[in-house]
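CO-FOLDING WORKSHEET

Operator: S.A.
Ligand of interest: magnesium ion
Run index: 356
Mode: holo prediction, single chain
Checklist:
[x] sequence pasted
[x] SMILES validated
[ ] output reviewed
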Amino acid sequence: MQLENIGFNAWFQERLDSGKSRELQPARVIAINKNSYQVSDGSGPVTAELTGRLMFNADSPLELPAVGDWVYVQIADDRSLAVIHDIFPRKTLLKRKTVGKRVEWQLIAANIDSAMIIQALDADFNLRRLERYLVMVNESNITPVILLSKSDLLHTTEIEAKKTEIRSLMPDIGIIAFSNIDASQVDSVRRVLIPGCTYCLLGSSGVGKTTLINRLVDGELYETRAVREKDGKGRHTTSRRQLISLDNGALIIDTPGMRELGNIAVDSGLEKTFGEIAELTEQCRFNDCSHINEEGCAVLAAVENGTLERERYLSYLKLRRESEYYEASYREKREKDRKFGKYCKSVMKDKKKERG
Ligand SMILES: Nc1nc2c(ncn2[C@@H]2O[C@H](COP(=O)(O)OP(=O)(O)OP(=O)(O)O)[C@@H](O)[C@H]2O)c(=O)[nH]1
Ligand SMILES: [Mg+2]
Ligand SMILES: [Zn+2]
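OUTPUT RECEIVED:
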């Protein structure tokens, strides 16, 4: 079956709804444009739209398709259009909370096996930001890999120092330093890509995500642009998420650089990312220790005696505070939505009564 070439496997096969698949066929969302989707059934892209039911019944963006999603579609015989009727259960979902007053989820990609977090080794390199990305990826139960791009701009000794710095904080994560300018170094990235697995590239604008994909497909298929000279910041060249099939059978999703990672933290992601702190907390005197000013706090003791870097401790507190804040406002919003839903239903009932 062609579907295997774009990532379909036993996990999804098991979840195939035979009722739905009688009239509809599975396809994968490979790109999202402003007003339409692109899906593939393994034999090329087709422009797709959502059924009204799917569009209007969605209470939250979580119920709409993301890139990488498996969906049930109906494809016109001439392949000019497909209609998306339903979404398969997701194996994983990479999402973040959107920045701003309204607390909502923004979907980054679905059914990702591994997220490649890219930081350029030049001015972009920032451990605290790396931690943020890791919290988001860990929260989704997706395996992270760290890619350090633009290695051509630094001496080997400087690169090694940065790798050591990352390793001391995140010992279990694979790190690959590479340059898009050097084919043999691009090969070191290619080597970790497993056929049938889906990868997602994450990182600031201008770090070389699209350039890497162009190297991997061996062509200038996708647009890239030079970073502004003045502040070293990218310009958001990639504006849509899309899934690309590589020759070796791996699938990779390019994403627009994230301007701001916003508030991403949720508990399990925090614990995995700050594993050494989670371990220390077990030795705190009080079970509900907040690790801010308590007597007998093992975390504070570690900061005092230098085994826990103060910067990392502060980063942990900051992410935790954000997490708590957004959890609270998210709950509040859900509650309002629920009440509003009830209100609508009661109005409908009254109307029915009046009529009946
Ligand atoms: N020196 C050097 N420059 C690179 C490397 N990789 C990419 N670049 C340059 O960095 C600039 C930005 O690359 P893109 O691939 O467009 O960056 P991006 O991460 O896709 O950016 P967005 O699409 O905006 O998120 C381009 O001018 C690339 O030529 C590298 O390994 N070394
Ligand atoms: Mg790009
Ligand atoms: Zn404590």
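REVIEW:
The two ends are 54 Å apart (CA to CA).
The mean pLDDT is 85.
[x] output reviewed
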